[in-house]
Amino acid sequence: MATTSDIKKGLCIKYNHDIFKIIEFLHVKPGKGPAFVRTKLKSVTSGKVIDNTFSAGHKIEDVRVETHKFQYLYAEGDDLHFMNTEDYNQITLQRKVVDGSEFMKEGEVVTILINTEDSMPLSVEMPSHVILEVTHTEPGVKGNTATNATKPATVETGARVNVPLFINEGDKIKIDTEKGAYSERIKE
Question: Residue 74, class by beta-carbon neighbours within 10 Å (0-12 exposed, 13-18 middle, 19+ buried)?
């Protein structure tokens, strides 16, 4: 058993007969009244996100998890296939439980949280940034780069990202997987 002081991003807990992963949390200590923890929880089974407030000192049932490195192999419809980099076992997960799956290219190594009680995969943690090549974008207008203007671009995985006007097809860009946004251009 854990308490609200143990809450941290990525912690998996049992709540309302389901397993949730904490995406965001905020400890609040108002001037009047007891302290509490405001959380945003994501169900690892359905992908549904809920907001919940725990009072300070509330007991929560945490789920013991192990982390393993898996390599993304390929997609088949809504299923994504991964291979454990240590023992080469393969698992299949549904696309909806993988945050940022649109930025995964074949061969990408991700961290998968596995429940130690039943060996079921709980969630997939993407690397914080990925480097992808731009496959399609409109050409930028010369001299129009002084502003913060952006244009849509399609990357090699098929995902669409807004990029600055100076980005062209064939450029490699760094994408923040948590926000799903352009970070910087990679120079070769």
Answer: exposed
In contact, 132 and 172? CB cutoff 8 Å = yes
Q: Evaluate if residue 146 carries a pLDDT over 70.
A: no
Interior/surface letters 44-68, b for 16+ CB within 10 angstroms, e for the rest = beeeeeeeeebeeeeebeebebeeb
Distance of alpha carbon 94 from alpha carbon 98, whole angstroms: 7
Q: Is the pLDDT of residue 145 over 70?
A: no
CATH of 2-62, one of 3.30.70.890, 2.30.30.30, 1.10.8.60, 3.40.190.80: 2.30.30.30
Decide if 132 contacts 154 (C-beta within 8 A). no
- pLDDT of 142 reads 63
Q: Write the pLDDT tens digit of every residue in 84-105.
A: 989 988 988 888 777 778 888 8
Locate the domains of the chain by residue range: 2-62, 65-125, 129-186
Q: Check residue 70 and give its pLDDT.
A: 92
The rounded distance, in Å, linking the Cα atoms of 142 and 135 is 20
